[in-house]
Amino acid sequence: MTIPDIIVPSAGRSRARAKARTYAVLRFLVVIVTTYLGLLSVTFFIGRVIPVDPVLAILGDRAPAHVVERTRELMGFNEPLYYQFYIYLKDALTGNFGTSVLTTNPVLDDIRRVFPATMELATLGTLIGSLIGVPLGVLAAVRRGSIADQFVRVIGLIGYSVPIFWLGLLALVLFYAKLRWVAYPGRIDIVYEYTFTPVTGFYLFDSLWQGQWDVFKDAFRHIILPAGLLGYFSLAYISRMTRSFMLNELQQEYIVAARAKGLSETRIIWGHALRNAAVPLVTVIALSYAGLLEGSVLTETVFSWPGLGLYITNSLQNADMNAVLGGTIVIGSVFIAINLLSDLLYRTLDPRTRAR
């Protein structure tokens, strides 16, 4: 065999791999663009079909007819629907969601102000759900059919079945009104409202960074109950999926081989089975985190948590559609980003998916 006979197949394989990577990147970009266009289309048409006139929401019902007509013209509502969608699309891609009727601030500025509160709450809730849910799921899988397994499954069933606002009210009555273990609803005591200056918007991190332990303690007493509630609902999902993944792994042949070699059960479960189950678990935890970011509206309302969910709720009650649609687009964008990131992590951690 000559040297050219070796080089040609190698070069052909390199070109095939490069072509496959290019195709994967293009497909990834098409998915992002298509999904985001779908999100913007849905929010646009929702804003047009709801029985709320955005012009009257700004000017009021008693505004003169000529002022209403002039404002409608300036806002582009007299243009054809396709042109309105073009303007809406252009503004959304540049971060221009209009001005909030409720706060008179640009919607994007309001979102920058309230979103860290939602993100801090969802992050702590996901940490609680993951740190407790994964071990519970492993325990349920290892002791399948036992009392421990039934207990974990009941915990998950309650987490799926009980409305979060009802459980939140019960938690407030018990842990705040009766036991006084946690602080009242809100994010921080009014004493620290004007003495504490957050930098990142994450009160726990900022108070630790600045060495203000009294602020950290107060912020923790405010966040622990709503975060624990979200963590419980996250735990229900994560523990169920962990149990399912572990049951599948424990039936694989490499587990039988590991036991035949005399490896300890602890090493087999935590070092081999859970390690392989961790690959799909990354996606589960990421989607759970995204779900808490978008689904904490009721929790923020019950606990008066000044996050994006409460902001959207108050805006909806006051017919502030710019704020509602802007918040919806931001939450949808975050969900899309986390979903795509989890897919990339899955492909990175599992080499078998790279060839697909």
UniProtKB/TrEMBL annotation:
Entry keyword Transport: yes
Keywords: Cell membrane, Membrane, Transmembrane, Transmembrane helix, Transport
Chain ranges of the ABC transmembrane type-1 domain: 115-346
Coiled-coil regions listed: none
InterPro entries linked: BPD_transp_1_N, MetI-like, MetI-like_sf
Residues passing through the membrane, by range: 24-46, 121-142, 154-177, 219-238, 277-303, 323-346
GO molecular function, one term: dipeptide transmembrane transporter activity
GO cellular component terms, A-Z: plasma membrane
Similarity comment: family membership: Belongs to the binding-protein-dependent transport system permease family.
Record's protein name: Peptide ABC transporter permease
Organism: Pararhizobium antarcticum
